Structure to design on (171 residues):
């Protein structure tokens, strides 16, 4: 069985413990979560959770079915096989000197990223894009000296209506 990365999106109730129950389920099944991102959805009192985990199609389908059984989960879908838009946000603090600052700025511009903070010895770069874009930018900035990096992990949605299995009575 081939193992690959899956993107699972769940609509969950905004209640304490939901994230913990979700993470515990993955842990009990022996899955490592590559990233997990949670934020408010278009429906009041519901959040959208995007989980990226590695496993075979069969393993991930079993996990998806288990996630569906969690009381506070409204809807869950593995959108890996769909045509999706996915993004990640990264903040990267890079050492800079007056001599290197313009070169860093050029690299940042190429990636359509932006500098959001400047200090005497560093610049902070904000980058948004797919994981490969963020990785590429990070690799180009590494030689200058990356002081710190913070990444959100993947968030994703299916294009068009292909991921919407909404009941007409819902939200």
């Amino acid at each position: 069985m081939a193992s690959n990365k899956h993107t699972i999106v769940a609509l969950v109730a905004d209640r304490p413990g939901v994230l913990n129950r979700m993470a515990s389920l993955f842990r009990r099944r022996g899955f490592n979560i590559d990233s997990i991102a949670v934020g408010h959805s278009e429906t009041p009192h519901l959040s959208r959770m995007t989980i990226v985990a590695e496993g075979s199609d069969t393993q991930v389908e079993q996990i998806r079915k288990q996630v569906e059984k969690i009381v506070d989960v409204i809807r869950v879908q593995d959108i890996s096989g769909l045509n999706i838009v996915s993004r990640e946000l990264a903040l990267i603090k890079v050492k800079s000197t007056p001599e290197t600052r313009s070169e860093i700025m050029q690299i940042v511009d190429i990636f359509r990223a932006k500098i959001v903070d400047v200090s005497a010895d560093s610049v902070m770069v904000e980058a948004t894009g797919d994981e490969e874009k963020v990785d590429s930018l990070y690799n180009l900035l590494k030689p200058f000296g990356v002081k710190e990096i913070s990444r959100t992990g993947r968030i994703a949605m299916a294009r068009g209506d292909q991921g919407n299995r909404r009941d007409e009575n819902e939200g």
